Amino acid sequence: MTSVLRSFLPGSTSTTRSNDCDDGYSVEYSFAMEYSGPPVNHDIPQVLPIDVRRIPTAAVAAKVLKIGDENSSSSGTLGFSDGQGDSNQLSGSSDVEDTDDNCKARVDYDYGKSTADLPEISSSEEVGLRDCEDEAEAPGPQIRSPVVDFHEFTTSDVNSDGSDNEPQIVFPERPVILDEVKGLCHRCHRKNRFADKEACIVCRANYCSKCVIRAMGSMPEGRKCITCIGYRIDESRRGSLGKTSRLLKRILVDEAIKHIMKSELSCEVNQLPPHLVCVNEKPLTIEELVSLQSCPNPPKKLRPGRFWYDKVSGFWGKEGEKPSQIITSQLTVGYQIRQNASNGNTNVLINSREITKRERRMLQIAGIHCEGDPHFWVTADGSYQHEGMNYVMGKLWDKKRVKIACKALSLPFPSDVSNPGGEEVANNTGEVNLKNLDRKQIAKFLLVGGDQSGTSTIFKQAKILYGVPFSEDERENVKFMIQRNLYSYIGIILEGREQFEEDYSIEMRRLQHIDQPGPSEISEEVDEQNIYSISPRLKAFSDWLLQVMVSGNLEAVFPAATREYAPLIEKLWKDEAFQATYKRRNELHKLPRVANYFLDRAVEISRINYEPSEMDILYAEGIALSNGVASMEFSFPILSQDAYMESDNQSDPILRNQLIRVHENSLGGNCRWLEMFEDVNLVMFCISLTDYGEFYEDATGICTNKMLASKKLFERIATHPSFAQKNFILILNKFDLLEEKIEQVPLSQCDWFQDFSPLISLHPHNTTTPPLAQRAFHYIAVKFKRLFTSLTGRKLFVAPVTGLEADSVNLALRYGREVLKWDEEKLTFSMNEDSVESIEASTT
Ligand SMILES: Nc1nc2c(ncn2[C@@H]2O[C@H](COP(=O)(O)OP(=O)(O)OP(=O)(O)O)[C@@H](O)[C@H]2O)c(=O)[nH]1
Ligand SMILES: [Mg+2]
């Protein structure tokens, strides 16, 4: 039987179009295409209005391309009819061959302008047929265009899987056309290898920009030659469905492209034929395919083929191969999984499937014993147990080592561990996805240390460094703490003033007594001359403050009393006696070093409207902000100086880190709360380098060296079962203070450091020997390294730090990140070696 192609051309029926699409043509025409016919099972007639640009000379509205069931008897004949119903028969075209009773075609164009303005359109081009004239002129080999070959629609096209389901229509296939000459347009046969071409997604025939619209019409099923409409796409082109091309962008307006791409993706005939996807040996029905493709975590780039699916765990793979993906579990697709679905030969079963060697290796890395041919039951969340036992042994996906192992062994790992099925991903916005990403990649650092070791300083420094803002509450708390501390520093100075005043009086009296031994008027005179004496009002304030401090009520009085006493601080600051004492503040041993930083701005800080700067917050000492447990998330910014580093070493801002600071006191007796932190990746243990020369009296009155106390805490944490496999970095903090202290206080103050005997150069200008502080640091570091190795058999990393210096803290934290990276690389490397070995062993 013959299909009839009809061109409906009002006014002019068979003109030849010079199909120039040069730039500069801005005339648009629109046309619609309607197609109906049995091979295409369209419920709705496809009428697609399309704006086409750059069609020469006139505004043309070509509309309605219709393939209908007319003239079914005219074999080898093209029928054209004009708008008035006249028809022109173009017979003898051997290119036209109809094999389908049911196929009908009519091509109608409606030009909105007078014939003078019309482009010339050849009779056959609307349906993508070879233009005889073009062919005659066309250079190069004369390749004949594909024949119009409508598929015979038979009952065999109705696919039935034997189930009760409705029979499914199987769309016909068309052989692809393999051009022998590259760069040839299939319609005009002009050759230009460099010009963009558009290929038919069914037969792969290429068309140049001049011919594409003529060959493909309004593209109701996307980029198909008109003769390929109703045919299944070439599966190798599935990946490009819906992705527009440069050529289309050049010749069509955005709206039209959008429309075509939408149709290309959504029209029924272009969908993956369900019967070609076989899951657990069962060809899918359309319903099964839809449920598979619309599940929250569908198989990626699904193509026709044979697959296996473990519906309990969600593992998915090609038949005879290892799993390639974890899709949503519990989908009702396919038969029961076969034991040899993935061609495993390990005698280890997961959900009735014998797993592959790689999977067994992954289980071993996860610490799961695979001896004795075990049968495991693994659910979608990674919970695993021995088959038949009601005891969950653990969760695969919670183990970091498993993630690394899967990466190294090219095994799938759930994209979102907390939700392996991906339900949330499907329902939520990008914000949630970002959170998931963060959760996935976060590296946790636990910063822990003893009293005054500097953990809160390092924590605050990290906040400032990585732009993690202090909250309003934190700022307010620190403000009050700084103001309270200020009063305590002033109290210490006032206490010192009393002492200096008394010392001064005694000295003056002694001197005057030497000059004029005699009665008591002298003492009154001495008191008046005492440079450390203050006015009665300030004296009253001083007495009150010292009293508050002695009674331990400073916290109760301040910050409430700040407003009231701020003016007095200003007065005090101007007072000569106070200033004289302040000048001698180095003699006041109770005054912390950091006090200088705040006392220099005492008047400003005591004001009610004082706002602490980030530096103030950093320097603030006392119980606030990071008292107890504090946590922050951050990422390392890529620094410009990193540019010369290998790209691998550059920190990726997407990689998130979490710094958790915890003080010894928050760990409870025997550090029993430490197990709360068992999921951290790195422990940063902080010790103050000045501890070696400091002592404290415990509750029983025994004097203990602080370094030994820190050592004890270190031992306890290093050997804690929760941290048995963790990386450790020892932060030796307050290096700046060590530099000063080591010159005055020998390291041997601490019993553990008795054998520190650095060679001291006799030459004062010797520059080859490192400074004493450096050697002391090195010595302490080695002491701790040996201790750690003896306790754990592992390696300890050590970093010198000055908590008050940003660079120093930055380096230490980046060092931590590097340690984690090395660890991951080491693991990956060892696993790769192992897997290569095991794969080699299995193949030999
Ligand atoms: N000079 C100097 N001072 C430091 C350094 N690190 C911390 N400090 C100071 O040492 C004191 C104690 O530091 P913190 O960070 O509060 O110590 P901590 O670990 O929080 O200990 P607690 O305060 O007992 O909780 C503060 O006054 C800090 O300003 C440092 O590297 N150099
Ligand atoms: Mg502190």
From TrEMBL:
Protein name per UniProt = Uncharacterized protein
Question: What Gene Ontology biological process does one annotation of this record name?
Answer: adenylate cyclase-modulating G protein-coupled receptor signaling pathway
Quote the PROSITE patterns the UniProt record gives. Answer: G_ALPHA
Q: Which Gene3D superfamilies match?
A: GI Alpha 1, domain 2-like, P-loop containing nucleotide triphosphate hydrolases
Region Disordered: start-end pairs: 1-20, 72-102
Main localization of the protein described in the UniProt heading: nucleus
One matching Pfam family, short form?
Answer: G-alpha
Indicate the segments annotated as coiled coil, or none if absent: none
Localization in the cell: Nucleus
Q: Which organism was this protein described from? A: Fraxinus pennsylvanica
What are the binding positions for GTP in this chain? N733, K734, F735, D736
Please give one Gene Ontology molecular function term for this protein.
G protein-coupled receptor binding
